[in-house]
TrEMBL record, chains A, B:
This is Dipeptidase E. CDD domains: GAT1_Peptidase_E. Keywords: Hydrolase, Protease, Serine protease. Coiled coil: none annotated. PANTHER family: ALPHA-ASPARTYL DIPEPTIDASE (PTHR20842:SF0), PROTEASE S51 ALPHA-ASPARTYL DIPEPTIDASE (PTHR20842). It holds the Pfam family Peptidase_S51. The keyword Transmembrane helix does not apply. The keyword Hydrolase applies. Belongs to the peptidase S51 family. Gene3D superfamilies: 3.40.50.880. GO terms for molecular function: serine-type peptidase activity. It comes from Bordetella genomosp. 13. GO terms for biological process: proteolysis.
Length: 234, 234
């Protein structure tokens, strides 16, 4: 498999700019005009056409031929033909519901297992996990089930931070993840801070970006993972 | 109906202390030894017995006879006999899943419609709404469906704030609620800040506490609701 799972898309530098070197590396074995499909379904307040334009512009230098999935006459054929599947962020529940309504989840998982590259950020990284149970998003729509693509055998929490607005009495992120770990004590969760991503290849994984990630598992003390080669196991 | 839906439980003053005057007012028509049931199922990292003790101690001065639902030999009989149903905060998904597993949701809704008083905070306030779609909690377990008690015909967002840790690129609360409003444009959402609560009686509603609430509906500009008599309609 050939995955790049990013925490976030935007930064001071511009949309996806911080991640371009890693995205380029993801695609280095592909032809310059590789067929890519962009999945915009996490967009809720953002128009899907506008979203596709934003992403197309951000990735223009790669030369990929990017087709937005909502514009494909035959979405199944588009995914079957794609060398790269790009899944953008937004609301994870909406993303999963739209893919499930179209019955595209098993096909997407198969295509990536067959060798299509997968680039996701935020909700797109949640989607690559066994379930969407570690999303930060509001459950604005019911996706029918929380099962996701299971491209990796652990959970990701994107935009990971333990910062908290002063005076706020709601749960901290660490408390929320501790709740997940209490409910699913054998499932690791990788907290990916802004600016980082996880590069997954058949022969191993690498934490990319300037920050450490945090690994949660059951009641164990959270572990710090440094950028570079990482292992995540239960 | 006789409801008190609080944003939060804890404050500098102590557990539920800020809400005691409103809770006392909720119970003023009840005998001092009224039968109450406490629902601890939103607790995930908190032991249910410990949780029941915490709540029992916090409400001791009211004189209610509080039975924790998880200790009831016959939960159906306990709810049928209760004059007050108390639903504590924690994780809304866990709360809903546990109630649904025990098939207690229709009974709880009926008891409150028949006249049992309802006191909820945080997840307990989410539960009183048509769905749990405006919870802030992480979806750590799948409740099977997002449908909730529908005691009020609108959604509540507890712990409402638009504060945001500096530098964080994830969604603000207002952006999350805007996504809900885009998906459900006819459903009002009441953002209840910390320290506030909504008092619901057959003849009207009142915002209690020292802060304004914010009302969201579709694409309309959010409206500010001042403490005192309020109306929420689509």
């Amino acid at each position: 498999m050939n995955l790049l799972l990013l925490s976030n898309s935007s930064s001071e530098a511009g949309y996806l700019v911080h991640a371009l070197p890693a995205i380029r590396e993801l695609g280095q074995a592909l032809p310059a005009d590789a067929s890519a499909v962009f999945v915009p379904f996490a967009g809720v307040t953002r128009d899907w056409d506008d979203y596709a334009t934003l992403v197309g512009d951000a990735l223009a230098d790669l030369g990929w031929n990017i087709q937005p999935l909502h514009r494909a006459e035959d979405p199944v054929a588009a995914l079957e033909a794609a060398s790269v599947i790009i899944v953008g962020g937004g609301n994870t529940f909406n993303l999963l519901r739209e893919l499930r309504r179209r019955e595209l989840m098993p096909l997407m998982a198969r295509r990536v297992r067959e060798g299509a590259s997968y680039l996701g950020w935020s909700a797109g990284s949640n989607l690559a996990c066994p379930t969407i149970c570690t999303t930060n998003d509001m459950p604005i729509v019911d996706p029918g089930s929380f099962d996701a693509l299971a491209l990796v055998p652990f959970q990701i929490n994107p935009h990971y931070t333990n910062a908290h607005p002063p005076g706020h009495r709601g749960e901290t992120r660490m408390q929320r993840l501790a709740e997940f770990c209490a409910a699913s004590p054998a499932m690791p969760v990788l907290g990916l801070p802004e600016g980082t991503g996880l590069r997954v290849r058949d022969d191993g994984m690498e934490l990319v970006g300037p920050h450490d990630a945090t690994l949660f598992l059951g009641r164990r003390e959270p572990a710090v993972l440094r950028p570079g080669k990482v292992e995540v196991s239960a």
